[in-house]
Amino acid sequence: MMAGSRSTGLRQARVRTAWLFLAPSLLVLIGVALWPLGRTFLFSFTDALLTEPDFYGYVGFDNYRALFEDPLWWQSVRNTLYFTVISVSIETVLGLTIALLLNSHIAGRGVMRAIILIPWSIPVVVSARMWQWMLHDQFGIVNHVLKLAGVIDSGVAWTANSALVMPVIIAVDVWITTPFMVLLILAGLSMLPRGIYEAASIDGVPTWKQFTSLTLPLLAPSIAVAVLFRLLDALRMFDLSFVLSSNSDDTKTVSIYAREVLVNFQDMGVGSAASTAVFLMIALVTAIYVTVFRLNRRLMGV
Amino acid sequence: MSGIALTNFVKRFGALTVIDKVNLTVGEGEFVVFVGPSGCGKSTLLRMIAGLEEISDGELSIGGARMNETPPARRGIAMVFQSYALYPHMNVERNLGFALETARLAAGEIKERVAKVARFLKIEHLLERRPAQLSGGQQQRVAIGRALVRSQKLFLFDEPLSNLDADLRMEMRVEIARIHRELKATTVYVTHDQLEAMTLADRIVVLKDGHISQVGTPMELYERPANKFVAGFIGAPRMNFLPGALIGEAAASRLDILGVSHRPGHFDYEGEVSVGIRPEDLMLGGGDVQLPATVQLVEPLGGEALVHARLSNGQSLVLKVQGKPDLTPNAEITVGWLTSKAHIFGADDKALSVKGA
């Protein structure tokens, strides 16, 4: 009886200590994440303006109605999803390929690993500016090289041509974030047990089947995490599109749309509604992705 | 046809030679064990036979055909790894059947062969489990099963029992002996454990620094070790080595050990020697040669006991005696042995034999 109550006391003390250690990070999280999110959610039901956020009245779902009736919003959603699907797909395939190459025993792969990280380590705005200059229709090196090679006669307006601007943004994003993909997949590759490949080679399993039956399924969790990270990033992409083609409707993402309404039109209500919608969209995609992957894992028995 | 022949086998890693001109033949159906301390090259030798390591020089033939350039899959071998190397994402059934699946066998036949092997190894109840859900001993059985299911004629084992605890090691040792008895497949087995080598092997190959130190049946190695290294490696507890000197005297050599002289026969050798006597050949009193000693420690093992004693020159030796001797530390004893049980090694560590014997 004594022992029982004493152990309960010990347990209580442990729980109290745990809360004590958790408290600072919880407070910070509430301050920087939960509070702004809650405020945004609140403002999305008001007619507040950015200039005077303290004077507002509740308007119910009017802001959401306005948002969902705006064709530009839906175009931003389409642009964002298009950008996300295409860029993340290319980055995954490219990242996997490069990671497999770097994982094999080739000379100088240590140096290669360091070099490949450079694009990712440059701030996105700097990369975007750099590419903007390289893609400049008159002075850009890309046009210069293409002209020298005889591929084109006159400079192409890469970021002004509505058919080219999205592919260009995707290409630059691939250039920037493939290293991140490579890094995560490489980490996954280094965790694979070496011995099973020797066993497989003795068992007569050809290399391609070793890849599809051993490497891919064992690497799937690493790839899935990498893809999830990229998915979250791509869905709220802002900087690249903003710098390379700030006002084009062809590349307007949902984040840019929300900022435009909020800052350019000073409409805090609709801006907040758009921000909330962006948040819900990302949450939804993530939830679907995580659920599907869990289900898939259970089916595969991983 | 599954005999193996290694001719002038050499393995170099850069400037380092780890296997140096090894010659060996393994007969069909024979169980050969490579044994030696870590770094002696035994695993490298096995991996060269398997095709997992390139052969730097020399020739490998299996069943009479040159195999140097043949990929592992076409050497007709099955291998069990120290780490088991099971496919972690597949259940036991798929682990066993994966090679057959790759070879495009009919699903029915795969199931049948997997079931047969599972029954043989008593792992039928584990077929649905994944490797992470198995104990070490069960994983070991699956690893052996994966090798068996392809019904190859040549089995390679790379320290298969070293990750198991003592009880399981014994159980699996008996199991491997049974498998070999029933399948009669040529087997090459690598271990650092001389007990496994002694109990399993038809012939033991003792390796040291990339050379073969001695090849022979377990009893040959135990009774007639060719050198001091093999003498010390085979047998537990280790053989005792005493310093001595052989002095040639007309028709019979005199052997001096710590001031005690005797005539063990005529040797064609003069000078410093090392006299090796196994703990089980030492006696408390009696024998042709006797030396005074002081008891240090007695370790009773039940049916027998190990007596650690110290000689007048400060050297320790171990005696294995029957029953439980009535000795306490610091007791004065006489340690003796029969001349016929002593192994004498020259300055080059090679065993010396009596002339004309």
Q: What would you note in describing this structure?
A:
The complex is a heterodimer of chains A (302) and B (357). Chain A is an all-alpha fold and 302 residues long. Chain A is 75% helix and 0% strand. Chain A has helices spanning 2-43, 62-69, 71-103, 109-116, 118-121, 124-134, 141-148, 165-190, 195-202, 207-235, 239-244, 254-264, 268-300. In chain A, helix 3 (71-103) packs antiparallel against helix 10 and helix 12 (254-264) packs antiparallel against helix 13 (268-300). The two termini of chain A are 46 Å apart. Chain B has a six-stranded mixed beta sheet, sandwiched between helices. Chain B has 357 residues and is α+β, with helices and mostly antiparallel strands. Chain B is elongated. In chain B, a hairpin with a 2-residue loop joins strand 12 (252-257) and strand 13 (260-265). Chain B is built from eight helices and 21 strands. In chain B, 24% of the residues lie in helices and 36% in strands. Chain B has helices at residues 42-50, 92-102, 107-120, 136-148, 166-183, 194-200, 218-223, 228-233; strands at 4-13, 16-26, 31-35, 57-62, 65-66, 77-80, 154-158, 186-191, 203-208, 211-216, 240-249, 252-257, 260-265, 271-277, 283-284, 289-300, 304-311, 316-322, 332-337, 343-345, 351-352. Chain B folds into two domains: 4-231, 3-Layer(aba) Sandwich (Rossmann fold); 237-352, OB fold (Dihydrolipoamide Acetyltransferase, E2P) (Beta Barrel), CATH 2.40.50.140. Chains A and B meet through helix 9 and helix 10 of A and strand 6 and helix 2 of B.
